[in-house]
Amino acid sequence: MSRLGREPRASQHVASVQDDEAFLLTDNVPELQERCRQLITRISELSEKNARLEAQIEERAARLSESEEKYRSVVENGIDGILILQDNVIRYCNPQMLSMLGYEQQDVIGVPIENFVSPGARIELQEWSAQRSAGLPAPTRHENAIVHRDGHSIVVEIHASTMRYEDKPAILAFVRDITKRKRIEQAEREARQVAETLRKIGIALSATLDFNRVLDKLLELLKGLVPYDSGCVLMVEGFQVRPVRWLGYDRFNSRAVQTISGITWNISEIPTLSRMLESKKPLVIPDVTHSKEWIDVAGLSHIRSWVGAPILVRQEVVAFFSLDCCEAGFYTPRHGELLSLYCVQAALALENARLYQELQEHRQHLEKTVADRTAQLEKVLATLEQRVADRTQELSALYNVASITAVFTNMDRMLLQSLQVVLATLKGSIGAVHIFDNVPASQSFMMIPADVSPDIQSEVKALPHFPLLWKKLVGRSQSVLIQQLDADPAVHFEQVAALSEGGYCALIASPIRGAKGVLGVFSLLGTEAQIFTREDTILLSAVADHVGIAIENARLRKEAEQNAIAEERQRLARDLHDSVSQLLYSQVLYADASKKYMQSGRLEQATGYIDQLIVSAHQALKEMRLMIFELRPSVLENEGLVGALKFRLETVEQRSGMEVRLISNLTGRLPVALENDLYYMAQEALNNVVKHARAKTVWITLSEADGQVSMEVRDDGVGFSKAEVREGLGLKGLRERTMKWGGELIIDSLPQRGTSIQITVPEG
């Protein structure tokens, strides 16, 4: 536009302007204007695109800044140290790495990595760094040791890879402190070595039981666990200790041997021994010249480092190990720990040797004692034989009572028989059993000679109810033994006057215990010639316990029978109500309706109701036969699965008018549990046929092949649509029992096409 504006002014100074040029210029003005508008539009679009690009650049710059911040946070807050190396010089070090080294950032940047590596690991690090920098094959992971600023060494695991850093090749290394792990691994190795050494030492020590030989071996084998230049075993004798075995002292001078072989110390005068005796722990003196507890002994000047430990037998110190070394600072607490472990083996060996020595010493004494005792035993033997005979008779009585309580179901007969056996065994004159219910003395069973007076019988019957006796027998559930009734505070003379006059003075009584308390009392009375003993009381107590168990069993059996009868009655009532009673009610309705139609002359309707009456009667008959069959004892245990199913089909289905077929290729009996479940499932299926199917024929097929047992129950009844029938408890029970055996249940049925139930389970 500016150009077009200038051209007219310029043409005023031109001498001549050709007409054709002016014509062309005038003709191109619209085109130029259109091109200018397009150019302006393009510039506007480029401006908008430039603005969007600037916004995207700003957004990406923000994201990059956020990523850099996250990366920096990960690098600076991670658990591993991070290094960037160029030519083995540190170019970057994160805070965790600085913490491992103990330096500040300015102390490590630009410093060769070798300055922070232990001298023994520098060559390995240099070779590894050279291989990584040159791109040669080198492990991406290796272990090394770095040195903290304070001088202690740290074992690290280095994972490295190559990278570009400031446009130069570099190594990126992740460093993890594994010092603790290495210490644990080293401790485990040492522990295994120590355990194996102690195992071998234990085997070697168990090879002999001679006390002196054991002492020698203890010192010989100890060198393999805790090295020493000289050492000894000090035995504790009262408040003193004395070397009993030593080794290595002859290497130094003869005076050392003389000193160690002839010395005896008071423990209280030796600080090291006193301390170990009190603490029962090992003691280590790395340098005896700097220890206040060490006492120099003439002839033992070669000792520079010392370790000792007590040998404990049943928590008592019986001896000490004393080990010496000529090198100062040699022994450490670890040597004390190892020596303490060895003391456990030593204690066992010494105790075994001591016991063996005592055994040898006692053997001759025992031989003499046995000879002396043999004569005494021969004298006692006759007495023992008599006592054995008595105990045998008592055991026989106990066995007889146990047999009686197990056999007799009639409680009265059981109590009388038991009372008779006990009277005969303990030679009592009068016996009584008092059985309690809610009040004392609800029942009494007595065996009394015929010539005793009624007063004696009355006192025997009331005997357990005397207050003090009742408190012991029933309140505390304790047995009672009285040698003189008329002199015992548990009874008064007036209460036992007739018994005393009749010569009955001795009494033993035991409570008959049950699960909920005392059920009764078992009592025996004797004369002066029939004094009872504590053994008699024990026997009577055992008999009373048997009787208590029998009474409890009888009561439980009775309750169980009553519960079973009640439960069976309830089941029958439910079954009658759910099946037969409803059918009978239907018959009443059909009969009543038939009568009304017949009276009104509508014979066709009456005939229809009579037909329904007949069908209902047949169904009621089937239900009754099914219930009668369930009341009969099962033949499954005696006849097996095939016999039981045959009996069922003949008893219920066949008598109900159905045709039955049983097909089986079983060659023998199946496991009892499997037969029980298969019979239950077949019975459940047959019950459904009887109650619902209205079938004419029922088939049962049993087959056995390839470790599998198959059973199919099929009928030609009305069937059902599986989509419209809800699975009840019967089908649910079939499915659960099949799943219990890991088998498969297939139910196939269609309306008016019958039903098939097929069960396949593993035979085992």
- Low-confidence region ranges: 1-18, 20-24
Number of helices: 19
Strand arrangement, largest sheet?
8-7-6-11-10-9
C-alpha Rg, in Å?
A: 54 Å
Search tags:
single chain; 764 residues; alpha+beta; six-stranded antiparallel sheet; five-stranded antiparallel sheet; flat
What does this molecule look like?
The structure is a single chain. The protein starts with a helix and ends with a strand. 54% of the residues lie in helices and 20% in strands. The longest helix has 75 residues. It is flat. Helix 6 packs across helix 10, helix 10 crosses helix 11 and helix 15 packs antiparallel against helix 16. The N terminus is likely disordered. A hairpin with a 5-residue loop joins strand 20 and strand 21. With 764 residues, it is α+β, with helices and mostly antiparallel strands.
Please outline what is shown here.
With 764 residues, the protein is α+β, with helices and mostly antiparallel strands.
Question: How is the topology of this model organized?
Answer:
Blueprint lengths: L1 H10 L7 H59 L3 E6 L2 E5 L1 H7 L3 H4 L13 H12 L7 E7 L5 E13 L2 E10 L1 H27 L5 H12 L7 E8 L2 E8 L6 H9 L2 E2 L4 H9 L3 E3 L19 E9 L2 E10 L7 H75 L3 H16 L3 E6 L7 E5 L6 H9 L4 H9 L4 E3 L14 H5 L2 E11 L2 E11 L6 H66 L3 H29 L4 H18 L5 E6 L7 H22 L3 E9 L2 E8 L13 H12 L3 E6 L5 E8 L2
Parallel strand pairs: 17-18
Antiparallel strand pairs: 1-2, 1-5, 3-4, 4-5, 6-7, 6-11, 7-8, 9-10, 10-11, 12-13, 12-16, 14-15, 15-16, 18-19, 19-21, 20-21
